[in-house]
Amino acid sequence: MSKKRVLISVSDKSGLTEFAQFLESQNYELISTGGTFKHLKEAGLNPIQIDEVTDFPEMLDGRVKTLHPKVHGGLLAVRSNEEHMKTVQEHGIGLIDMVIVNLYPFFENVNKDISLHEKVEFIDIGGPSMLRSAAKNFDSVTVITDVEDYTKVKIEMEQNGDTYIETRKKLAGKVFNLTSAYDAAISRMLLEEDYPTYLNASYKKVSDLRYGENPHQTAAYYVSTFENGAMKDFEQLGGKELSFNNLRDMDLCWKVVNEFKEEMACCAVKHSTPCGVAIGTSALETYKKTFECDPVSIFGGIVAANFKIDAATAEELNKTFLEIVMAPDFDEDALEILRKKKNLRIIKIVNPVSDKQTWVKVDGGILVQDNDSIFSDDIKVVTETQPTDEQKKALLFSQRVVKYVKSNAIVVSNGIQAFGIGGGQVNRIWATQQAIERAKEKFSGELVLASDTFFPFRDVVDFCAQQGITAIIQPGGSVKDQDSIEAANEHKIPMMFTGVRHFFH
C-alpha cells in the first residue's frame, strides 16, 4: 500500500503527538515545517521537512516555505481529472491527502501592547493558503484546523480507512469560517476605518446558550477576536450558566455604573431597564440606596457595582433574590457569603467598557453607529431662575442615568438615587407621569427630572410644576423650546439645556 501524505504546520501543538502517531500507524508520511518538525522529531516520529518536498529552502525568516507548486499542486490536483494527474506526474508533484494547520496566533496578539510591525509578524500567509487549497479540494483532501477534530477524524479512519465526504466538506467549511474571521481581524487592524466598504465581523463562539430571549429560540455567545470589552474574559466565580437575557442585561448594567468615574456607583437592572441607580460613600450604603430605589422590581434582577464587594454588602445582597452580582472585585469573605446562594451568578469584570460601535441586526442588513459615549460639556441654564449647586449636581446625576433608559426616557432623582425611571413609552408625558409617580412613592424630599430628548410641548414642565419637581435638565432642540422655557419661568423652575440628545431604542 502506497503511503499517503499529511502536511502539518501548527502553532497549537496540543494533542498533536498522539494524532501524528496514529497517522504514521495508518501509513501516512508526515511533512512538516520549522517548530512543528522539531516537535514531531523529538516525540520519536519520522517527519520530513518541507524543503525536502519543494527542493527549495525556507527563506525570508520563514515567510516563504510552503508557497510552492509542489505543495499547492499536491493539494489542488483533482484526482479524477486525468489531465491534472498527468500534470502533477510530469512535474514530480506528490499528492497531499491531509493538511493539519492552525494559524499564527494573531488573535492572541492583536490587542497586546506591541508595535504594529510586531503585530504584522503574527499574520500568517502560508497557513491560510494551504488551508484554502486543501479546503477547495475537499473531495479528496481532509483539512483540520481545530485540535478538537482529531478524535472524529481518527474514529472515521479506523472505521472506513478514510474520512467520509460529509466530514471533509464540513471541515472545509470550518477552514473558510476561520480564515474569514482571521482576515477580518487583520483588516480591522490595518484599515482603522469606522465604516469600511465591507463590514468585517470576527467573533469566536464562547458557548451555546440554553435558549435565546424565549425557550423556543436557539442562541450562542460570541466574543470579539480583535478587541477587548467588559463582556469578554470576565470571570464567573459562582452560580449557574449565563443566559442570553443575562448577558444583555449585564452589558447595560455595567455600562451604567461605568458612567460614574469619581463616585462609588451601583445599578440594578431588570428586563434591560435600570430599576435603581445610586451613588454613595461606602459599598454597603451605595447598594442599600440602590435597593431603596425600587425594592419590588429589583427582585430577580441584576446588580452591578463599580467597587469591591465586601462581606457586609454581600450579606445585604443575599437578602433578596438576584440573578447576578457584578463587580471589579470581591473580598474572600464576600464570595463565601454569596456562594451560599447556589444559583447566584457572581461575575468579576476584568476589562473596561471599550466598545466603539453598536451593531443592530435588521432583516437583511446591519445598522452600525458609534456608541453614545459623550456627555455634554456645554450645559446652559435657559431660565430666569438659576439652579442651586445641589440641584446642578442632582441634574447631572440624573442625566447620566437617562442615557440607559429606553426612549422616551425620564429619570427623577434626588441626585443620589434614581427613584423614578420611566421609559419605553410612546409619548413623553406618560413617561414623565410614571417616573414622578414612582419617585414620590419612595421619597418626599426635593426631586429633579432629566429627559433624554427635548419637550415638544410645555405639558411636561406644567406637570412637573404640579408635582413639585424642583429642577429640569433636557437637551433642548425643539422648535417649541420657548414654550417650555416660558412654562418653567412661570413656575419658577430652573431648567438646563445640554444640547445632546440620548435616544436609546
Q: How would you describe this protein?
A:
The protein is an alpha/beta fold. It has three domains: 4-191, Rossmann fold (3-Layer(aba) Sandwich), CATH 3.40.50; 240-348, AICAR transformylase, duplication domain (Cytidine Deaminase, domain 2); 380-497, Cytidine Deaminase, domain 2 (3-Layer(aba) Sandwich). Helix content is 37%, strand content 20%. The protein has helices at residues 16-25, 34-42, 50-54, 69-76, 82-90, 106-109, 116-120, 126-136, 150-160, 165-191, 244-257, 283-293, 311-317, 332-338, 389-402, 428-442, 459-467, 481-491, and strands at 4-10, 28-32, 48-49, 98-102, 142-144, 203-209, 219-224, 235-238, 264-270, 273-280, 301-305, 322-327, 345-348, 357-362, 365-370, 380-381, 410-413, 418-422, 448-451, 471-474, 495-497. The chain has a six-stranded mixed beta sheet, with helices on both faces. It has a six-stranded mixed beta sheet with strand order 16-21-20-19-17-18. α2 (34-42) links the parallel β2 (28-32) and β3 (48-49). α4 runs parallel beside α8 (126-136) and α17 runs parallel beside α18 (481-491). The longest helix is centred in the middle third of the chain and has 27 residues, at 165-191. The radius of gyration is 30 Å and the shape is elongated. The model has no long low-confidence stretch (mean pLDDT 90).
